[in-house]
Amino acid sequence: MPMIIRTAADLRQTVAAWKVAGKRVGVVPTMGALHDGHLTLVRRTFDEADKVIVTIFVNPKQFGPTEDLAKYPRTEEQDVELLAAEGVDLVYAPTPDQIYPDGFSTTVSVAGPAKAGLEDKFRPQFFDGVATVVAKLFIQTDADVALFGEKDYQQLAVVRRMARDLDLDIEVIGVATVREEDGLAMSSRNRYLSKHERHQAAAIHRALQQAAEKVRSGLDPQAATRAASRSLMTLGFKVDYVTARNAASLAIPQTPDEPLRMLAAAWLGTTRLIDNIPV
Q1: Which residues of 150-187 are buried (b: 16+ CB within 10 A; e: fewer)?
Q2: In what helix (H) or strand (E) does residue 20 lie, and over which residues does it extend?
Q3: CA–CA separation, 36 and 184 (whole Å)
Q4: What dihedral do alpha carbons 161, 165, 171, 177 form, nearest 10°?
Q5: pLDDT value of position 62
Q6: 8 Å CB contact between 63 and 89
Q7: Residue in 35, 38, 199, 205 annotated catalytic
Q8: Secondary structure of residue 124 in the 3-state scheme
Q9: Per-residue pLDDT tens for 138-196?
Q10: What's the CA gap between 279 and 101, in Å, rounded?
Q11: For residues 179 and 186, is the Cβ–Cβ distance under 8 A?
Q12: Per the count of CB atoms within 10 A, which of 35, 41, 93, 133 is most buried?
């Protein structure tokens, strides 16, 4: 079983001993409710590091006033069993006071890819909350490398930018989205889909694939994404966005030869799904 550590002081003591022994440390930050997508990140981390830490912390600063923090799934016992089977060395599951102690008053405010008019348009507080907690986890774990899934592509871009801007000595690696057999991106939110909705949900990935193929064939990216959006709406999705953006900056593309990423977010019933693919 992995060690379970709940205080930053104990974590630092353990990691310091690893570093003295010359070990390279990797971290996978999560909010728990683990699935195969998370476990894929864990397995990839063993390719990059000698010791692997998985953090489990449901971050209240990522939740807006209309999002129910109390309803977020908390499955620590099951999560630890899954991580034990993968050979994880340490689970850092800090108590809230270890991340936000009494009087905590500092927030990492991010711009650049965090202000791209994508997820930030619908969850304005989200990326400042992500950047703040991830910066703290990077510092507390003193990890050499961190792995994030590409499913949350804007989040990955924000974390990379934040780590560079703050001179955090850590390598941030993106790992390709892990999908179900029908193409649906694995997510903790998928458990909220009804049986019918689950059958419909893979359409979001198909729509992105079709749009990307049209762009590769020479169609204007915005025309291709508008068609994808209409397709999803006819299937009953409530579309927040389907768009093509610069793959690095997430800015609206200005030239025909820049690398692109297709991104989408849409509601199916009461569940909000996001996905993205390279063009």
Answers
A1: bbbbbbbbbbbbbbeeeebebebbbbebbbbeebbbbb
A2: helix 8-20
A3: 13
A4: -10
A5: 86
A6: no
A7: 38
A8: coil
A9: 999 999 999 999 999 999 999 999 999 999 999 999 999 999 999 999 998 899 999 99
A10: 43
A11: yes
A12: 41
One-letter amino acid identity for 31? M
Identity (one letter) of the amino acid at 142?
D
Clarify whether 196 is annotated catalytic: no
- One-letter amino acid identity for 112? G
What is the four-CA torsion angle of 122, 125, 126, 131, rounded to 10 degrees?
150
Q: Which amino acid is it at 186?
A: M
Q: What is each CA distance from 169 to 21, 174, 209, in whole angstroms?
A: 19, 17, 36
- CA separation for the pair 246, 181 (Å, rounded): 28
The number of CA neighbours under 13 Å toward the Cβ of 268 is: 24
Residue 258, token pair as written in the block: 């820049």
Q: Which of 221, 267, 210, 271 is nearest to 246 (CA)?
A: 221
